[in-house]
Amino acid sequence: MTMEAKHIEENPPIPGVEKGSPGAWLMACRPATLSAAAVPVLVGSACACRAGGFRLGPALAALLGAFLIQIGTNLANDVFDFEKGADTADRLGPTRVTQAGLLLPGQVRAGMIAAFALAVLCGVYLTWVAGIAVVIIGVASILSGIAYTGGPYPLGYHGLGEVFVMLFFGFVAVCGTALVQVGAVPALAVVAALPVGALATAILVVNNLRDRDTDARVGKRTLAVRLGRPGAMLEYELLLLVSYAVPAILWLMGRGPSWMLLPLLTLPMALKLWRTTSRSEGRALNPALGGTARLLLLHGVLFAAGIALSKG
Q1: 3-state secondary structure string across 6-52
Q2: Cα–Cα dist 8/56, whole Å
Q3: Which of 77, 122, 126, 304 has its CB 3.0 to 4.6 Å from that of 46, i.e. a possible disulfide?
């Protein structure tokens, strides 16, 4: 019996999900995380619209490419965390398919490669539209998605996860989306990337805050492990502050009418999440994790709408 087959045999079934089934693959792709890929494209497209250069074809290709890179990264995290021993039966978060035995490690690796390969096809079209800069962005995004938990120096294991998320889910994704539509990066896109990246990073902070004890036991030195609960909470609070300060500052600077303030409608939701996160531990943080992802989506949609409506 191969090691992979033995791994599948030793894991008990997950109710409602058969081993190797489409449901297992859907679980592996983690569709709830796709808002973190969609929001930067929405905001970047709004910045392109504001600059008078919105183009539907490149926008849709950027969105599909973002989804595929996110899925590829999710699959990479699933199999690499399992192989490094970070995912165990003590896991507090949603089920990981490799650890649970729903898919073989080799299957998950193949899925990762397929997702990244399909993302490359989107990149070929976008390169034809916008030039060689797309190649640099695409290659860097894919390599970083793999290096987050894989390779000789996994970023997430050395306290660099937040830097990765802010850079690629904020600046690279928002500015790259605007670039493929406008042909240049508008200054507004650089600023607009801040709240998007901040809230995407806040999701990771809650995840790492929840897992800090189990991560510490397997040598995964996230910032939450390094800084402890007080430091992680301060980080979460600062990220929320950035996400609301930027739209307000843009409005105060005359970069748009009051539409720019639409994201402030989500402030009560953010305050509720802050209270939940500050008072919860372990699995009790799962609602805050999902809530922060929903906050990113709603805040991002309103921010994109505010930017687009401020055109002219």
Answers
A1: HHHHHCCCECCECCCCHHHHHHHHCHHHHHHHHHHHHHHHHHHHHCC
A2: 44
A3: 304
Radius of gyration of the chain from Cα atoms?
Answer: 20
Tokens 């600046």 found at? 171
Phi, psi of 14 (to 5 degrees): -95, 125
Question: Which residues of the chain register pLDDT less than 70?
Answer: 1-16, 86-93, 311-312
- Conformation bin of residue 151: beta by default, left when phi > 0, alpha when psi is -120 to 50: left
Asked if 105 contacts 7 with a C-beta cutoff of 8 angstroms, the reply is: yes
Contacts of 35 (CB under 8 A, 6+ apart): 293, 294, 296, 297, 300
Q: What is the pLDDT of residue 108?
A: 94
Give residue 37's pLDDT: 94
Region for residue 20 given its phi and psi (left: phi exceeds 0; alpha: psi -120 to 50; beta: otherwise): left
What type of residue is 172?
V
CB 67 within 8 A of CB 38: yes
Question: What are 92-115's pLDDT values in tens digits?
Answer: 667 788 888 889 999 999 999 999
List CB contacts of 114: < 8 A, sequence separation 6 or more. Answer: none
Report the amino acid identity of residue 26. Answer: L
Chain centroid offset of residue 101 CA: 25
pLDDT of 312 reads 55
pLDDT of res. 255: 78
Query: How many angstroms from the chain centroid is the CA of residue 55?
Result: 24
